Fold:
Amino acid sequence: MARAATTTDAFNAVAEPRRRQILDLLATGERPVNDLVQLLGLAQPQVSKHLRVLREVDLVHVRDEGRQRMYRLNAEPLKPLHDWLSKYEQSWNKRFDLMDSVLDELKETEHDNDHDD
Amino acid sequence: MARAATTTDAFNAVAEPRRRQILDLLATGERPVNDLVQLLGLAQPQVSKHLRVLREVDLVHVRDEGRQRMYRLNAEPLKPLHDWLSKYEQSWNKRFDLMDSVLDELKETEHDNDHDD
DNA sequence: CAATCGTATACCTATAAGGGAATACGTCAA
DNA sequence: TTGACGTATTCCCTTATAGGTATACGATTG
Structure:
């Protein structure tokens, strides 16, 4: 099997930096494709392709405005990612790294001398 | 070009569900590979391969314990993801979807009648 | 209708993933 | 040492990416 498709979920869609950039740009408001092309400095087809992926995971909504297509952010599918990551938040807030080191040392000491209390 | 390697950063590493599962399991404490194999119901080589990816992006640390290898979570590389996602938090908290719809309608009205106030 | 603009899609290529299966390697026990 | 155990690595295969380039398509303008 190959890697899961980028359109599988927001996790995969957002793994690509360009797509995160696009979302960041859309966070400031609705924009037509050419705006993004300018701001990103990418070729138009690539932008359209990234937008397709974002559309398929519902991270953006489109609206037809004459011959332009206005893209708008829909951040809701990002919530599950944020929720999942929140579980780990304490790990970097409470200097768990340090605690881990201490635990390691303890374990190694335990290993050397069996104490009976 | 192909998709960025899974070892490029935590974003890519964590896009794979199994690897998220592994991190979830390690969140409860240090574990040897076979533990994970049991808990995940995967073949041992696949688990080792996933662990390799997680190691390369520094999401896990290893410690040799006899012939076992104890894996421990290192959540710090997840912080950037959490930070990035936090920017969008308000979007799903404040019913922005609704606001967006309203904005859309406003825009369309603006479009129809040019008002001068 | 023709020309042009804004955007999407098709096609090609190089790259690598992830699962399966086999095997290599280091450690410990007999 | 031999053998078993725990784990990592290698090889094969299928699939899909992301970029480049060309082109198709709908809407608007003249």
